[in-house]
Amino acid sequence: MSATLDAPRTPLRPARKKGVNWEKWGWIYMRVSGVVLVVLIFGHLFMNLIVGDGVSAIDFAFVGGKWADPFWQWWDVAMLWLALIHGGNGMRTLVNDYARGPKFRAALKLAILAAVAILILLGTLVVFTFEPCPIGQPADLLPSFCAA
Question: Is residue 124 helix, strand or coil?
Fold first, then answer.
């Protein structure tokens, strides 16, 4: 029996196929979104807890007043989108590492995608359609700061 040896410096893996390297871009996204999320989260905490009256001041009226400003709407939506996509990408990586079988792996990744998409949609709708004082509602159903 004779064994053949590969020539020196022969790559261990075959050359990569042409196209987009999604794993590389997912890896880059995790690093960039992590840094941006740190800034967004600490800005969020600073404005809500330090600049204001602390955690005791956070209530329905506080959120209503904050979301009346488009800047804070976009801040919170950016935080929501980045956090959900970051978490979904992390879960996808775990599924790729630990799930056995291609069909099971595909089903789990589809479930993660559906959950992330639904939560992004619902969260974005909540932020941009939030109305603390809806017109035409009975006064007993409105918060105390709304004019009846």
Answer: helix
For 2, 59, 127, 145, the CA distances from 56, given in Å and listed in that order, are: 78, 8, 22, 17
User: Can you list the domains of the chain with their CATH numbers?
Assistant: 27-141 (1.20.1300.10)
Contacts with 86 (C-beta within 8 Å, 6 or more apart), sequence order: 29, 30, 33, 34, 37
| Residues sharing a CB contact under 8 Å with residue 88, sequence separation 6 or more, in sequence order | 112, 113, 115, 116
Q: Give the closest residue to 114 by CA, choosing from 88, 94, 136.
A: 88
Q: What global pTM score does this model have? A: 0.79
CA–CA gap between residue 14 and residue 93 (Å, rounded): 23
Q: How many Å apart are CA 50 and CA 44, to the nearest integer? A: 10
pLDDT digits (tens, 9 = 90+) for 72-106: 999 999 999 999 999 999 999 999 999 999 999 99
How many angstroms separate the CA atoms of 104 and 27, rounded?
23
Tokens coding 55: 């955690």
For the segment 43-52, what is each residue's pLDDT rounded down to a tens digit? 999 988 888 7
